[in-house]
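Before relying on records like the one below, remember that each one covers exactly one chain. Contacts with other chains, cofactors or solvent are not represented anywhere in the record.
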Amino acid sequence: MQRKDISISLIVIILLGLAYIVASLVDIPTQAQGGDAPFIVLAEPKVQIISPGEPYVPIQFSITSLINVTDVTIAPQQSVAFTPSFQQSVHLPYLLAYHWFNKTVFFFNVSSQATPGYHNVTLAVTYYVGSNPVPKVAYVSVPVLVLGYSTFVVSATWGTPSSPTIASPGSQDLPLTIVIINNGNSPAYNVTVVAYNTAYITFTKGYSYLGVVPPGTEVQAVLLADVSPSTSQGVYNVPIKIMYDNGLSYTLEVPVAVYGPSLAVNLATYPPQIFQGYEYAQLTLIVTNYGQGMAYNASVAINTPLEVV
């Protein structure tokens, strides 16, 4: 008898354990108290991960009533984290008690301020009970998990990564490619890159709209910049802002190098030796740039007591 009691106890413990595991893995539906006809609603997002700021997120709903109702209209409502993407509703002539109406999909925009975790998505259910001509309304809220995020790795190169160039003092409309990699677990939406002027680098095209940047994907934004002629050779930080998900932003500074020229001037005469009274001797100036940067608007002047023609 004692052994039988122990076996029953073990079975009860196992069943309770299984019930706990199932409850932890499955979202418990929220029941709305709408007058005398509460509804039970289940929500199933049709995307793998929901991110803050994500637009047009499809969520599938299943709904049942605890009593028979007629002339049922289901419409999504605005909540703290979820806003209907557009006006939507579903009409049912009737909904029998404990019969599920499945696969109703509504689209929502997720607030860019939504933090990771569960947030309620709300439906308004308008219905009639029996012969009562006055409709009733029940508001049903169901928790949905928001877990996506985006992080960015950003670098910059003059020209393009496949065809780099050198920035020099005085360069104009020089392409500056901003390379962005999304290291998050979900797409970043409505991504725009903005660059800000500095004392030495000013942008003639300082923004670029990139749209959607999937996770693990590299995208490039090509901007145009002028380098001030007074810029010295060195590395300069350019402020960059990445705006995404309809309200989020990420600001950083990316280093870019400016290379200056290094000029040397040599003289040569023809004939190699010139004596007093010699007419029309040829003087040749040889200018060599030993630097990595280009010299713009270069000119050479001669200061000599000799007559130059």
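The radius of gyration is 36 Å.
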